[in-house]
Amino acid sequence: MSAARATTSTPALGDLLRDLAPQVLGALTRRHAQFDACEDAVQEALLAATVQWPTDGVPARPRAWLYTVASRALVDHWRTDSARRRRELQAALDPVGVVGPDDRGRAGDDDTLVLLFLCCHPALSPPSQLALTLRAVGGLSTAEIAAAFLVPEGTMSQRIRRAKQRIRDTGARFTLPPPDERAGRLRVVLHVLYLIFNEGYTTRAGPHLHRTDLTTEAIRLIRLLHRLQPAAPEVAGLLALMLLTDARRAARTDADGSIVPLAEQDRTRWDHTAIAEGQALLTRTLGTGLVGPYQIQAAITALHDEAATADDTDWPQILALYDLLSHVDPGPVVTLSRAVATAMVHGPKAGLALLGTLGTDERMAHTHRLEAVRGHLLEQSGDLPAARECYLRAAQATGSLPERRYLTRRAADLRSPPPG
Amino acid sequence: MKYMIMMFGGVGESLADRSPEWISRMQATMMTMDRELRESGEVVDSRHLMDPTQATTVRFTGGAPTPTDGPFAEIKESLAGYWIVETTKERAIEIASQVAAVVEYPMEVRGIMEE
After folding, report:
1. Which residue out of B23, B32, B35 would a mutagenesis test of the A interface target, given it has the greatest number of A Cβ atoms within 10 Å?
2. Where would you tag: which of A226, A293, B43, B63 has the fewest CB atoms within 10 A of its CB?
3. A277 CA: distance to closest CA in chain B (Å)
């Protein structure tokens, strides 16, 4: 990760990668036959290229470079499947790291891991998974958790009790999930930690300051999981994502607690130590395993974080990563972000066209985000009355008070002619 | 005694014709007041409600409960939020007056019964 990327990358890089991808995949599949595994491996090579080429320069033989990296990823993938258990054991036995003399050691680590899997049992609803994880793994009291989620303590106590009962009913034992279920269960764990982080992060601006504890707690838990599973790339990816996102905390709100959008934030107030740690983690992780949504999102966040000013943001690179993300983890929210990046690279009309594809998406129809982004792009395109309507609709639909205040102000600003 | 101070209006459509300056001033004052009331320890609870256009009203019509989209009261007169304060009635009215002076919407002060 270096500032050099901002000057070297162009939309041409994204085009080059898209041209090469099917060629590399074709060659790889011809050789190894497993289309799905090869496809994953190529995705990983593409991500590595997206991150490394702008910094190191495009290799003399880019196709051969991608093929080599993809082959290595494929071999790693095969090796990982058979050796995962052994590697996890080795990692747990590894005396190097943050294990202090007071640590309970290997047995404690194993227990913690089993506990995480258990609290994030798929039979539980997400609110129950969050609550149980914070209590059993995070060590928070029911009262603290209730305060953090703004519900009465009795409600939270019932929720936790029912969750534990549900786990008992499923007959789950206190052992690691069977190897064939491990990856899927780890995804649930990561999702739960991601939700805990977001619960704290998206409400930072609100009057309930104790909710910031959730962000800190989520980072602590993902750090723990990363120590237990150092070889899991998505665990590292999620830790990087949280660090790189939380680094902007101080600049996200002004003195009144009002939202300050990314483009207007005072970047000197970002936590550059956290950014450096996130970047280092990401650099170490990319290319070591299968690419996943957290690594890609972390890479996108890193690109934002390393831009000295909003104008320095490497939007072509970010768009390329969103393109990757829409392959790896497609969904309406990704499309929304991709529309913003598309608008920054190819103009607001192109972004609005991409948004148009979401109009019929059931999952999007009732969220305020679509209207907020549409308003933003319409404002960029100069259609201020339509932009204002979108902001007003978004303000009506949002469930977040800071967001409603922000959107109401944006709408009000468009009443008068723009300054200058 | 505990009092509920309710604010009617002040979100969504009721703000559509206000100037950006007015809205910024109103928001800043509300946030300051929220903070001061919390810090003084008078507030037991306070919540802002989502826009009334998002409400669903359930009425008993034709012998059965029937949900319909939209708020019970007119949008411009819908409940926008409330504070529950533990103080004297005079102080509760004083707080309501401070808010009304800024937002220009009606406020209602009601005692909360002991159970």
Report:
1. B23
2. B63
3. 35
Choosing among B31, B44, B47, which should be mutated to test the A contact, i.e. which has the most A CBs within 10 A?
B31
Q: Does residue A377 form part of some domain?
A: yes
A390 interfacial to chain B (CB closer than 8 Å) = no
Looking up tokens 């798929």 gives A122
- Is residue A25 one of the residues assigned to a domain? no
- B53 at interface of A, judged by CB pairs closer than 8 A: yes
Shortest distance, CA B63 to any CA of chain A (angstroms): 31
Cβ–Cβ pairs < 8 A, chains A and B? 49
Parent domain of A363: 331-420
Give residues with Cβ within 8 angstroms of A414, minimum separation 6: A379, A384, A385, A387, A388, A391
Question: What digits encode the pLDDT tens for the residues B66-100?
Answer: 999 999 988 888 999 999 999 999 999 999 999 89
Closest listed residue to residue A297, CA positions, set A118, A47, A58, A94: A47
Question: What is the tens place of the pLDDT at every residue in A358-394?
Answer: 877 666 665 788 999 999 999 999 999 999 999 999 9
- Let me know if domain B2-111 sits in CATH 3.40.50.1370: no
pLDDT at A30: 66
Q: Assign residue A386 the CATH number of its domain.
A: 1.25.40
Place of tokens 């998406």: A361
Q: A408 to chain B: which residues are within 8 Å by CB? A: 11, 15, 23, 27
Q: How many domains does chain A have?
A: 1
User: Distance (Å, rounded) from C-alpha A226 to C-alpha A117?
Assistant: 14
Residue A337 confidence class, pLDDT cut points 50, 70, 90 = very high
Decide if A412 and B50 are in contact by the 8 Å CB cutoff.
Answer: no
C-alpha to C-alpha distance for A224 and A115, rounded to whole angstroms: 12
Query: What is the structure's pLDDT at A353?
Result: 95
What digits encode the pLDDT tens for the residues A393-408?
Answer: 999 888 888 888 899 9
Task: State the sign of the Cα–Cα–Cα–Cα dihedral A354, A314, A55, A52.
Answer: negative
Q: What is the reported pTM?
A: 0.70
Cβ(A227)–Cβ(A371) under 8 Å?
no
Q: Would you say residue A29 lies in a domain?
A: no
Q: Sort out which chain A residues have CB atoms less than 8 A from B29's CB and list them.
A: none
